[in-house]
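> forwarded from #structure-qc
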């Protein structure tokens, strides 16, 4: 018999604040729209990320510095000495505690200092990481998981698929601007994965399975906002759904939670 599910289904976990210096150890061009970097260093010891859609703050050095000034907590809030550095949110994809390495995927979509760093920074260059400060933990052993998003959701989806056990079902729909960015994902879960030109149209062709499941989606703000009504119309439980804006067209460094029970 399966163990009873926690109530509420979503468990919030807080982590002590930590900021670290790490160096670029390796990069891999995954596809036209993605580059994967491996970061490492002794300060990654003790890194904790318990939610598949966690995010860390990636921090570039300020002008003229080899290492960025890292944030520290002052009066309950993170502050950085000197000029504010460029900071962006990224999903911690794969952490190796023994090697003290962490992999991040960068979407290559036409500009920005973090993207330029991921593509061109020399190996050995130092950057900063802060967080994650908290995690959303959803039980893996549900009947099904519906995972939706655009390119920016792919690291979180890949991590979740690696975590899911046999005996559950994963339904994945990813809206891609370039079909060449599709991935050959696998999972111990029964996987139904499709890369599509339109998430809205893909949802019209889907029926939510029976049983207890969870709906997760992330991507551009307007795209994610438009999914809420059709998901609810199909019977999605708002207490078992999370939609997040990982970016917003025309706005830098945007991250917003749009719907959660």
């Amino acid at each position: 018999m399966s163990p009873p599910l926690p109530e509420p289904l979503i468990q919030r976990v807080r982590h002590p604040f930590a900021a670290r210096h790490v160096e670029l150890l390796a990069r891999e061009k995954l596809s036209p729209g993605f580059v994967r970097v491996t970061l490492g260093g002794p300060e990654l010891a003790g890194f904790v990320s318990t939610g598949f859609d966690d995010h860390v703050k990636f921090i570039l050095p300020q002008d003229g510095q080899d290492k960025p000034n890292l944030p520290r907590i002052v009066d309950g809030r993170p502050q950085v000495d000197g000029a504010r550095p460029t900071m962006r949110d990224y999903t911690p994809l794969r952490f190796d505690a023994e090697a003290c390495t962490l992999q991040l995927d960068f979407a290559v979509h036409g500009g920005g200092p973090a993207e330029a760093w991921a593509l061109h920074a020399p190996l050995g260059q130092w950057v900063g990481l802060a967080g994650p400060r908290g995690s959303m933990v959803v039980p893996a052993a549900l009947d099904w998981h519906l995972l939706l998003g655009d390119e920016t959701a792919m690291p979180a989806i890949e991590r979740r698929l690696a975590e899911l056990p046999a005996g559950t079902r994963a339904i994945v729909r990813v809206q891609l601007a370039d079909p060449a960015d599709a991935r050959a994902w696998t999972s111990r879960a029964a996987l139904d994965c499709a890369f599509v030109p339109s998430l809205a149209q893909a949802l019209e062709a889907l029926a939510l399975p029976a049983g207890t499941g969870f709906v997760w989606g992330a991507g551009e703000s307007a795209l994610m906002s438009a999914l809420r009504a059709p998901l609810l119309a199909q019977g999605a439980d708002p207490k078992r759904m999370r939609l997040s804006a990982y970016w917003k067209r025309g706005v830098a460094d945007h991250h917003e939670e749009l719907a959660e029970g």
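QC bot note: The longest helix spans residues 154-163. Residues 34 and 107 are 5 Å apart (CA to CA).
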